[in-house]
Amino acid sequence: MSGIPYRRPEPAARPTRALWALRPELLRLLASQPLPKTLRPGPRRGPGLASGTWGRYVFSIATPLNAAAMGARPSRRGRPVDPPMALDELPLELLVRVLSYVPPCTLVTRCRAVCRTWREVVDGPTVWLLQLARDRSAEGRALYALAQRCPPNSEDEEELPLCALARFSLRAPLRRNLIFNSCGEQGFRGWEVEHGGNGWAVEKNITLVPGAPSQTCFVTSFEWCFKRQLVDLVTEGLWQELLDSAQLEICVADWWGARENCGCIYRLRVRLLDVYENEVVKFSASPNPVLQWTERTCRQNEASRGSH
């Protein structure tokens, strides 16, 4: 029987060890590259692959020369390893930026005690301004702009252990109740009291007061009882220039109520004093007395005034 003898096609070249030595990053890079038109998979010809097929394409780009041509990074094993750099070797500008990511409490309690350079950075305003600038909320941007317009006076910093911006970041005085022991959860700590009748006492609330840190209250007797507290706004985290800018609103609120079996008379007086304790602004409230056997609810007195 005559005919053309069958000739077994030559198998495609097998990949060498260079293919298996490729880094996973390079393999992912090669897989994401589009195939050139001349090297797209061709039709199968017998048991092997024709020339210019996918098998030869993988082999060709696995060589070191073509791997570099594809933009792959050289192996890290061949590059010299840079020695680690200590933080005290950083330029001052980079050190300030690195420390600005540290929480305020850690900056003051730990970083400030490392060395003299770190102490000067923590005591300076730049690291704290960077922290304020990182707050991109509307209130944060307004506060950052206000801190730039009304920077604290450096001459006043000598009387207090920390700079004004550090105290502000630590104490967070905005939107916080600045009255210490406001509900009597610690007895009469922080208060100056004048007892009348049987004197002051601390009892549980008769009705629930929403938002109170503790469901306890101060209770008076059958005669006038007074209590007062002095709040130092500078110690709480604000600074004099910020208060003088008239850009802050001070809100004063107090809950009060009467027992059902006895009436009461309530008065509230608030004064804003300057550094010499001269009265700048005052507010007072004298609501109508509550008669006996009429009610046992709690109500709130609230007033807002600018810091000017």
Query: How many helical elements?
Result: 11
Shape: elongated
Instruction: Summarize model confidence as the mean pLDDT.
Output: 75
Q: Could you estimate the helical fraction of the residues in percent?
A: 25-40%
**Residue ranges: pLDDT <50 for 5 or more in a row?**
14-69
What topology, given as strand order, has the largest sheet? 1-2
Which value, in Å, is the CA radius of gyration?
Answer: 38 Å
Which structural class best describes the helix and strand composition?
alpha+beta
Instruction: Write the element-wise H/E pattern from the N-terminal end onward.
Output: HHEEHHHHHHHHEEEEHEEEE
Largest sheet: 2 strands, antiparallel
Strand content: 15-25%
Number of strands: 10
- Cα separation of the termini: 116 Å
GO molecular function: carbohydrate binding; ubiquitin protein ligase activity
Protein name: F-box only protein 17 isoform X2
Keywords: Ubl conjugation pathway
Domain FBA: 168-308
Q: Could you explain how this protein is built, in words?
A:
- By secondary structure, this protein is of the alpha+beta class.
- It has helices at about 15-20, 25-30, 55-60, 65-70, 90-100, 105-110, 115-125, 125-135, 140-150, 165-170, 240-245, and strands at about 45, 50, 190-195, 200-205, 215-220, 225-230, 250-255, 270-275, 280-285, 300-305.
- The protein has a two-stranded antiparallel sheet with strand order 1-2. A two-stranded antiparallel ribbon has the order 3-6. A two-stranded antiparallel ribbon has the order 4-5.
- Strand 1 and strand 2 (about 50) form a beta hairpin.
- The protein starts with 16 loop residues before the first helix and ends with a strand.
- Mean pLDDT is about 75; it is low at about 15-70.
